[in-house]
Write the structure tokens for this entry.
Amino acid sequence: MQASISRAVAREYENRQFAAEQARDLQVGALHQRWPELARLDREIAAAGADLLLEAIEPGRPCRAAARKAKLIAARSAFIKANGLPEDYGQVHYACPQCKDTGYIGAERCSCYRSTLIPLLKANANLRALEGMSFDLFDETLFSPQADANRFQTDLSPRQQMLGLRQACLRFIRDFDRPETRNLLFVGKPGTGKTFLMACVARALLDLGKSVLYLTAPELVASIQEYHVLLTAYNPDEIRMEKAAALHESLMTCDLLLIDDLGTEAGAAARYADLLAVIDNRNLPALKTIISSNADPATLRDTYDERLLSRLMGGFAVYRFFGDDVRMALNRRRRSLSGERVKTDPV
């Protein structure tokens, strides 16, 4: 989990603590205004507590504070009961009573930590373009059950291949924390399910508390270029610099980086170097990357230099997507369900 998310979680818990303590203070202030005797008792209890501390650090001081404090607390309890005031008067009501809105019980994360973390992870994952994509919506019937060895260079049908790819993605999720788990490279024509499976993996890992960042290849290259420009600028805009630095940190440290549409970025050697730097900086057992490209491996060899190609082919498990454009199948299904007659070319 990148540092920016950790800081966001810490700020969330700090805000909860502040809100709970402020609510307590407002309640106490209102009751003090209405009941001056209660305010007097609270002041004297506080003074007795201070005297108790002085007695602890000054051995010759008479030990009277503890008895006086106990007597005052008993008097306050009687006053609260006699006047029908809240029994929990003066207490802080934390959102999570177990950890008192710290996120931890001792050295262990509280059960509330996950419910606090995951919304922040999702908010920072940049998955708006992939909204609604998850394994729950995986529909194998959108893919043809007909094999075509001449067309697809395999005896598998698009449906069989897609089911196998789904299983590969589920294994990737299951083994995500294992050092030997390889990055994934999805290649195939547009509309064959690459982005959909990337989104499915992303959402499953977000639900497991992993940090995820999704960027298209042009967005990734543009973000790196902007970060470098601002970093070397004499007087960069502070807000732009803060945003660029946060995105760059996430790019290099998120648990899972998704790079979509590799090959659509503008072709320049410096930008290939940026992609290479990202892949090299993320070459750590805890960090994983999934890249998709509409180009086949042969085209990638023609497009990228040997260093970047070596990283892709050597450090990534390559999975091929094939078949008809699934978006066309979805459109045909929608027209059929709406009662429209699907027009076909004459035979």
DSSP finds 13 helices and seven strands in the chain. Strands lie at 104-105, 108-109, 183-188, 212-216, 256-262, 288-293, 316-321.
